[in-house]
Structure formats: C-alpha cells, structure tokens
Specification:
By secondary structure, the chain is mainly alpha-helical. It contains 9 helices and 3 strands. It has a domain at 142-198.
C-alpha cells in the first residue's frame, strides 16, 4: 500500500494499492519508480504528499479509480416543490456537480492520468446532455468555467468543449448581469474568436452602415 497525504491545513491520509495508481498516473509512476537514475525519496518511503490539493478532490479520484464512478448527487425531488424552490434546488445541484467535475478534471490532468481525464471530460458532456427535473439542460456556470480555465493549459480539450458549447447553443441571458470579477477573459475571448470563425463570411454589401442606425440623440433641425 502507498500512503498519500492530501491537504495543507486539514490533511487527510489515504491508502492506495501500489500497483493501481502508478498504472494510471504518470506522476505517481515517476514518484514511486525505483530506477536509480530517476528515483525520488518518495519511492523509498512509499509515501506521497499532495499538500496543495484538497482531500475531497482526491477522495473523488479514489472513487473513480476503484469503482469507475463519480459521486453525482441524487436527482432533485420534484414532489410538492414550487417553481422557485425547484429552480434553486436544481441550480445548487448543478453547481455542485460541475464544481466537483472541474476540480477532479484539473487534478487528474495535474497527475497525468489520461484515462481519468477522458472519463471526466465525458462526465461533463453527460451532465450537459442530462435533462433536469424542470425539463431543461443545464450548462456549466461561470464559476466552473473560471476554475477550469485557471487550472488548465491552452488548447485543453475541456476548454475547447466549453467554448464550443457557448458558441453553438449559448444565449445572451447566459452571461447577462455577470459582474466583472466573475468573468474569465480568456474564455470569453475564445468564445468571441470561435464565433467569428463559425459565422458565415460577411459579404461586401453588409459592411456599409447608415449613421442613423447608431445615433440615439435626435438632431434638431435649425
């Protein structure tokens, strides 16, 4: 067994089978390698410290590693719920789901577990395709998007998928009323760029505009 210590303030200790995690994660494979040239001190102690990571994220990873499942919340109970309460319950559930998936995706990317990264990406797509209790689909909110963009590199597949969905099916109300501090500039720039790429090329006749279409102030005639 391998000891994995996760967290900086409230550290939790996890025990992982030695043959399992290195077979999935290049980071753990390198850390536990006994090859003299690349040997880390963790290989001798059979102990890994992940002080910058969160215990609940690693716990979700362990569930994925051992069971092949993710801890999605139970479906929202619609019986006796008024529309406002139902909307709040769905919103909270969706936010928690996508928040969990974003954190997990970033973690498995960090430890170089390609299989789990692919599963997490597929889970994003399944969560988006799922019809919720109100009969609607729920796209990842900007909190999840910001977390994803802050924790992944350029050209990451999840980044590309998020941008594609906003361009293809997004509406103005998805981003209306959002405060500046909650915006992710890189994400919105990529949405803008992709929208310009996917729209039909403008013809020469569409480039001419009349000034009266833009002036709001009435000009008094003398």
């Amino acid at each position: 067994m391998i000891d994995v210590y996760v967290g900086s303030v409230a550290t939790e200790n996890f025990f992982v089978h030695e043959r399992l995690i290195p077979s999935r994660s290049l980071f753990f494979a390198k850390a536990l390698s006994t090859t003299p040239v690349t040997k880390w001190h963790e290989a001798e102690e059979r102990k890994i410290e992940l002080r910058k990571d969160e215990p609940h994220v690693f716990s979700n990873y362990m569930q994925l590693l051992y069971r092949g499942t993710l801890p999605f919340k139970k479906p929202v109970n619609t019986s006796g719920s008024d529309p406002n309460t139902l909307a709040d319950e769905i919103g909270n559930t969706v936010k928690a789901e996508y928040g969990m998936l974003s954190s997990l995706y970033i973690f498995v990317d960090k430890i170089q577990d390609a299989s789990s990264k692919r599963l997490a990406l597929a889970a994003f797509m399944e969560a988006w395709a799922a019809v919720r209790a109100d009969g609607r689909r729920q796209f990842p909110g900007l909190d999840s998007i910001r977390t994803t963009f802050e924790g992944t590199s350029d050209c990451d597949p999840l980044r590309e998928w998020l941008v594609d969905q906003y361009v293809r099916v997004g509406t103005a109300d998805w981003v209306s009323g959002i405060e500046e501090k909650h915006r992710t500039r890189t994400f919105f720039f990529q949405v803008y760029r992709q929208a310009m790429i996917q729209r039909p090329a403008p013809g020469s006749g569409t480039l001419v505009a009349k000034e009266q279409n833009y002036y709001l102030d009435k000009i008094s005639e003398s």
